[in-house]
Amino acid sequence: MNKIKNIAVYLLFVMLTLQAFTLSAKNRFPKPEFESGHTQPVTITPSPRAIFFEYLDLVVLLASLTLISWFVMKKRSRKGVFGISVFVILYFGFYREGCICSIGAIQNITLALFKVNYTIPLTALLFFLIPIVYTLFVGRTFCAGVCPLGAIQDIVAFRPMPVKAWLEKVLGIIPFIYLAFAILYAATGTDFVICRYDPFVGFFRMDASFAMFLIGGLFLLIGVFIARPYCRFLCPYGALLNIVSRFSFKHMSITPAGCINCKLCENACPFGAIDMPVPHKEKEKTEVIVRRYVILSLVIPVLIIAGGFIASNFHENLAMVHHKVKLANEIMNNTNYGVIGKDAIEITAFKSSGQTTEQLYTEAAAIVDEFNTGSWFFGGFIGLVFGLTLIGLTVFKYHPDYSPNKANCLSCARCMKYCPVLPEKK
């Protein structure tokens, strides 16, 4: 007991010492002086979240993933998945206000890889990796109901309608393009576009702009009829899990035993993620198969190079999103600073910073060079996605029964109740 008291007294002494030091410290970075009569507003710095609560988020994530995986893989319970979804919306959605988020953590990972002066928070790293590990073992159970963005869409899918297969394929490319944009802008330190344009965080925080409230509302309204539009046609983290899930060791199945091809589950999936039985077709000649693979092996490198070349020609346009490049462009085109609005405030702040225009131009040029390099990878990645999608459309796949597509299946367990086959008794 005495040891505990001594520790408490010691900690109190340290805190009082630090507070006294802070109050007596000199202002090393004085406020900028504006010539326009601007008054510096009072800054309110929120208190950092306690370490205990950060790790509590990780515990809740692990518990939710484990429980929902058990409901999907063992209990085959749609009600269990729905219950986890409601809890996640309340906790990670409204209580944690959509942050920290596995989807947005893509940007933290990218920034840490490309900017040595950025230290990624441990929670962001783990929130990014843990769902990927679970996906590698049991499929996309994170998407089933642990992601608050997916969960809120799942509970409003009241009258889902099927989407044409060809349209599903075309729209399915968009998440990979969005992922490429997010990585490019995070790697160059431009912006975290995933967080900025998250359609549902505005609902969770109740502080979004009218435009983002409108976009989020439209997603939910569309989600009543087109199930999970953000998850299927926009989510960049879903694009990553789409790739990882293809190699998952286990995956949910529609039937607990052998499929009897009763066709009852044929239209059960609102996401179009059930592969229908495909009968054997006549065996193709060897020279035909070889010719097809030779053509595809030549087409993909061409698409990668073409994508990189096209994107590199627009690298200056892509770089204009960066605030320093935009500022340099404004000053260069308005030598007398004859601008108004937000740009005028930024230019006035720059004039008061003491930095020369030559220094600004040098920094902006270096950023544009980063975009020139990054745009080659950006365009090449998109070309690769188009090439692999083309292969997926041309390569024959034999399916003897109804089975979930491991890449697109969100493990929501909706289809299980349609199967009349009973679990095998052990």
What does the model show?
- The chain has about 425 residues and is mainly alpha-helical.
- It folds into two domains: about 55-280 and about 405-420, no CATH class; about 285-395, no CATH class.
- The protein is about 60% helix and about 0% strand.
- The chain has 19 helices and two strands.
- It has helices at about 1-25, 50-75, 80-95, 105-115, 120-140, 140-145, 150-155, 165-170, 175-185, 195, 200-205, 210-225, 230-235, 235-245, 285-310, 315-320, 325-335, 340-355, 355-395; strands spanning about 275, 405.
- Strands 1-2 form a two-stranded antiparallel sheet.
- About 35% of the residues are buried.
- Residues about 1-5 and about 5-30 have low confidence and may be disordered.
Brief digest:
This protein has two domains: 57-279 and 403-418, no CATH class; 286-394, no CATH class. It has 19 helices and two strands.
- Helical content band: 55-70%
**What sort of overall outline do the alpha carbons produce when their principal axes are compared?**
globular
User: How many H/I helices?
Assistant: 19
Helix and strand run: HHHHHHHHHHHHHHEHHHHHE
Q: Got a strand count? A: 2
Kindly give the count of domains.
Answer: 2
Query: Uncertain spans, ≥5 residues at pLDDT below 50?
Result: 1-5, 7-29
Query: What oligomeric arrangement do these chains adopt?
Result: single chain
Head-to-tail CA distance between termini: 55 Å
Biggest sheet descriptor: 2 strands, antiparallel
Which structural class best describes the helix and strand composition?
mainly alpha
Strand order of the largest sheet: 1-2
